C-alpha cells in the first residue's frame, strides 16, 4: 500500500498526460481503463465516493479483482499529486515485490525472490529496451508522473508476449478520450537531503517539476495529451568499501582487514522527459492511438576518498605493529606502519536517452470479430565516463609512508586514523602511488584511468491478432489468435585510457621516461573534504576534469582484456499464440480465465572478438568472432478465476514460462590467457591455457509454474488475500562454468621453447552454461483494510500491508552438493502502511522490510558482482492537504514528504560473517515540499 501510497502521490500531471498512452487491447483481458470505468459506474449507482489515496487503493483492488489471472496493481490518486523519485519506490511496496537501492534510489526489482534478470518490463503492453547493461530495466529512467496504472502479472497468459519467470511489470498510461474534461495540471516540488553536502562541488538541494495538458476535440472523437517533466535530484553517500579479510600471517593467522576505500560521494540526477499521445475514435468500428515517450537522463557522481592497502599478505608492504587485538578470530584493533595510500578524486557520469513510439489500431470486422494491429519502436543509448585520478607521496611506494590506527566499529566498518595530513598539497602529487600501472607488456605511470563504455539497445516489434466472441458455449466466451515479431539488437562498446602526468616520455610507459611525479596545480584544488565518519580528518578535494584536461596525458588502453569486450547481441523472435477465453457460469459460480499456448521461435546471434596468440609478433591478438543459435519453445498456460462466494475468488494458474539470459552472457567474446606458473603442469586443475567469456549458444531459463490465490473483497472497499506458488526451474544459467577445451590450434602458434615445456594442450574455457536446476516456493498475505469497516467513527483511517516468504533450492551441475543463493532473494519481505485521509487532509507512514539477500553491485571496472546484503527496514512518511471545492484555492494541493527516516544504510558482507563488511553506503534522509495545481 505504501507502494500504492507513494505511487498514488506520484500520479501527476503527466499521469493524464500519459492518458493518451493507451495500453494495447491485447495486453490483458481486463485493463486498468476498464477497471476505472467500472469504478466510475459504481459511483453513478450511488455508492460512497472516495478520492485521493483511498480512491487509488480502490482502483487497484478493482484491477486485481477483475483480472482473470493473478496480478498486483498500482493506481495513481489523481493528476497533480507529487511522484516518487522512481516508479520502483512504489512497486517495492506491492506483495512479494521488493527492490535494491543503488545510489540511494530504488532501482532493481525482485519479484517473488527472483531478481531483475528473471522479470520483464513492458510499456503499455510492449517490451522495452533499457539504458542498463542488460535486460533489467532501471526504473529511474521513467518519471513516475508518466503513469496512471502499473500491473504486475505473477502468472503469464498466452497473449502476454515476453512474460518473465518472476513476473511481468506493465507500465500503463491513460487515454485522453477517457477523460471527461479538459485538464491542465502543474506541479513543483523542492528536495533537500538531510546530510550536508559531502563535496564542495556537490549539492543537497534539488527540484522536480511537471506539467500536463489533456483535451478532446471533434465531438470527442480526437484526443491529445502532452506532458513534460524535469528533475534535478541530489543525493549524498558516505561510502566505505573493504578489499576483504585474509588470514594474516602478520597477525597470527587471524582475519585482518586487507585494505579499505572510504569515500564521500555526491550525486546529481538530472532527467527531462516528455510524452505526447494522439487518440482517434471516429466510430465504434475504429480506434487508433499513437503514443510517444522521450526521456533524457544524466547522472553525475563526485567521489573523493583514499585507498589504504593494509594487509602485508596482499602485498601492501606495510607492517602490523605488536599489540594488535583479536576477537573471535578477527583483528579488531591494530597499528599499521609503512602504508602508502592512494588518494582518489573521481568523477563518474552517465548520460542516456530513451525513446519509445507505439501505434495501435483496433478494427471491428464484425459484431463478433475484432482485428488489432500494433507496431512499436524502442531505442536507448547510454554513454558513461568513469574518470579516476590518483595522488600520492611518490611513485611506486617511494614517498613518505603513513602509520594508521584501525579499529572495528559495531556496524562492521573500520575507523582508519592516519598520521599523514592528506590535505597537505606540499607532500602529495600526481603519480602512480603503488606502481600498479601495467599496459599488458610494460609498466606505465598510471596516475588515473578513464573507462568510457557505450551501449545502444534497439527493438522493433510488429503484432497482430484476431479476437472473436462465442455464444452459447457455456463458460467458453471467445477466442484469440495472434502473432508477434520482434528484433532486438544490443551493442556494447568499451574504450579505456591510461592517464599519466604530462611531461617527458611517451605512451605513459616507465621505460620511455614518463614523468613519475608532478605537483598538483593550484587551479585544480577546490578545497578539502572530511572522511570523519571513519576517522580521516580531511583530504584534498581536486577537480578531476581540470586534471584530465590540463595536467594528465591519455594513452589508449589496447590490452586484449579491454579490446575483447566489444560485442553485439541480436535476437529475432517470432511468437504465435492462441487461446480460449472463459467467461460464464460453472455450477452456478462465475468463472473467467483462459487456456492457450505460445510457440516461440528464436534466432539469436552475436558478433564480437576473441583473443589468440600471434606467432609473428609474439603478442596476443584480437580477432573477429561470430556465433549464435536457433530454437523453439512451446509454452502452454491456463488461468482460472472462480467466484466461489459473493466477492470471494479462488484463482488458479499453471504454466510453462521462460526468460532469456543476460545479454552480456550471450556475447560470443572470449579472452585468452596464459598462466606461465602452470606451464609444465598436466594437472587439469592447474591449466596453462585459460579462456573466459560469453556463450552465444546459451538458452533461456525455463520454469514450470503453479500459482493459487484466494481473495475476498469487502463491500465498502479493501480486501484480504492469501497466495501460494511453486516454480520448478530448469536450464538455469551457471554464470561461470569451467569446461575442458583442447587449445592445440593456439599451441601450434607458440614459440618452440614454450611448446617444449607443455605437458598438455587441454585447458579450461570459462563461460555461462545452462547446467542448473532447482525450485522456488513461497506464500504471500495481503490486507487492505479501511477502518470504517470496523467502526464508522474511524472513517478515513486505514491500513495496507503484506508479508511474503520465499524458499529456494538451486543446484548447479558443476557443484550439486552446494546449493546457490538466488540474486535478489530475501526469505522474508514485508510492507505496512497506515493512513488517514479525509476532508482534504492526508497523513501516511509506510515501512518496508526485507531480510538479507544476494545483492548485485559494481565490481572491478564496473563489472557486476554479487555480495550478501544485510536485512534492512525503511520508513517513509508524508502529510498533505488538498484545498476543497468551494475554497478560493480549489485545485491546489500541498505536500511534505520524508524518505528513509530510519536512515538505513546499505551494507554487504562476505563469508556469512556480518563482521566482514565489504560495502557500507549511508544515504541519509530526504525531505520534499511540493505544490500541485489542477484546473
Automatic annotation (TrEMBL):
Residues 1-27 form the signal peptide. Keywords: Cell outer membrane, Membrane, Receptor, Signal. Residues 65-167 form the TonB-dependent receptor plug domain. It is found in: Cell outer membrane. GO terms for cellular component: cell outer membrane. Pfam families: Plug. The keyword GTP-binding does not apply. This is TonB-dependent receptor.
